[in-house]
Amino acid sequence: MAFESLSDRFQGILKKIKGQAKLTEANMEEMLKEIRVALLEADVNFKVVKEFVSAVKEKALGQQVFTKVSPGQMVVKIVHDELVDLLGADQCEISLRHKPTIIMMCGLQGSGKTTTSGKLALLFKKKMNKKVLLVAGDIYRPAAIDQLVTVGRQVDVEVLNMGDKLSPVEIAKKGVEKAKQENFDVVIIDTAGRLQIDEVLMQELVDIENAVHPDEELLLVDAMSGQDSVNVARSFNTKLHLTGMIMSKLDGDARGGSALSIKHLTGIPIKYAGVGEKLSDLEVFHPDRMADRILGMGDIVSLVESVQEEIDEKEARKAANKMMKGTFDLNDMVQQLEQFQKISMSKILKLIPGMPKISDEDQQKAQEEMKVTKAIIYSMTPEERKHPEIIKNSRKVRIAKGCGKTNYDVNKVLKKYEQMKEMMKQMKGKMGGRMPNF
Question: Could you tell me the pTM of the whole model?
Fold first, then answer.
């Protein structure tokens, strides 16, 4: 996961300083030295590291310590604020004020522009309920148009496919015309990349820019390419008017140095981050939330958003109501398990402060356990699922045989069910019978 090694280092460094009774120039110097090494090891640009450490030192030594705030807490706040500033300070999500909002995607060949165009389309469609048109403007790469058509089908978004007879500029113009005529909210133009930056590529992008005047010109950069991504961004920005970047493979870069360097060195904000291979794995890049994660403060807002995206709110309310009334049965339990299976537990735990890491192996075990639980419950009769109290030994034997498990496995499921019921009773007592809000 992005920034994982840096996060571990920063949390250790700041834990030590928080334990100090007071700040001195000596313990500050030691902390700043460790921060400098941690950032350099995370592949953060040397110039950026130097300026970051200098800013932290200046603010920390110049701060008056308030009576209710320890010196260590003050330093944590200063480091946090500087990280936010480094990552981009303001949230830079695309504003869809114009209709249609025209977005031009740029990048090198092989950076994943076509797939990312689909990810962006899905994000606008799913989260913002926007009508999106994808425009196949890469007429050079073999199968690029077919790939975008396939991606469009997967995210259920229309694709303008004009083949490879017209120029990319004409295709872009036709796409914008269609978007205006057919009342699309957003039009995303997928452009051609090259193996390296060249004049022909740049001139074509400049021509598209001049022809359709995009509201957003987004450059896709690969987090795994490290400081090379800074050079790519600078080169594109000399000819184009880039408004933002999408950083792909941020989940695969444990160091995260390019993400910490690129905004400061180029002035171009990161607007979105690719965090996985699925078409739904694109997130708005929030500098403040990312700083929270790096410093081990969690990210509760993203946690709530992630759960809301995956969990069916009506089903959750219905289950909560039944729990509070004491009518929660095994049918409800299996429904809740199916809801939880939609969520990546490793992703969720990373957003909760102080939670331990969960390995892929542990997550796989949890998924397998859920499958076994569901198999056992589905092996029961409708009456048994509704009234688990009637399940005595002879019924347990039949249920176990029906799903290829043992009496011990059946007892484990029933015990889990009883524990959930007991937990709900305690919650009901604490809440005075009120249903929780979702």
Answer: 0.70
Q: Which residues lie closer than 8 Å to 2 by C-beta, 6 or more apart?
A: 223, 250, 251, 253, 254, 256, 259, 273, 275
> What is the SS3 assignment for 80?
helix
Structure-block tokens of residue 104: 């031009």
Contact status, residue 328 vs residue 389, Cβ threshold 8 Å:
no
Token pair recorded at residue 2: 């992005």
- Rounded to 5 degrees, φ, ψ at 105 are -95, 130
Helix pair 71-87, 257-266: axis angle to 10 deg: 70
Q: What is the CA radius of gyration of the chain?
A: 26
Closest among 353, 340, 337 to 306, alpha carbons compared: 340
Q: What tokens appear for 309 in the block? A: 């995206």
**Cα–Cα dist 386/388, whole Å:** 6
Contact between residue 138 and residue 130 where contact means Cβ atoms under 8 Å apart: no
Render each residue's pLDDT in the chain as its tens digit; 438 residues: 557 778 888 888 877 777 666 667 777 888 889 889 988 888 888 999 999 999 988 887 765 544 445 666 777 888 888 888 888 876 667 878 789 999 999 998 888 899 999 999 999 998 889 999 999 999 988 789 999 999 999 999 999 999 888 999 999 999 999 999 999 999 999 999 877 677 888 899 999 999 999 999 999 998 888 778 888 899 899 989 999 999 988 876 656 678 888 888 999 999 998 888 889 889 888 888 888 878 776 544 555 555 555 555 566 566 666 656 667 788 888 877 776 666 655 555 555 545 556 666 777 787 788 889 999 999 999 999 989 999 999 999 999 999 999 999 999 999 888 887 776 666 555 545 444 443
Residue 370: other Cβ atoms inside 10 A? 15
Q: Which helix (H) or strand (E) holds 270?
A: strand 270-274
Q: What is the token pair recorded at 158?
A: 């229309």
Query: Cβ distance 115 to 274 under 8 Å?
Result: no
Residue for token digits 């939670």? 355
Q: Which residue has the tokens 């400081």?
A: 227
Specify the amino acid at residue 24. Answer: T
Torsion of CA 419, 424, 427, 429, to 10 degrees: -110
- Please count the CA atoms within 13 angstroms of the CA of 218 that sit on its side-chain side: 30
**Helices marked H in 214-341 — which ranges?**
228-239, 257-266, 287-294, 300-310, 313-325, 330-340
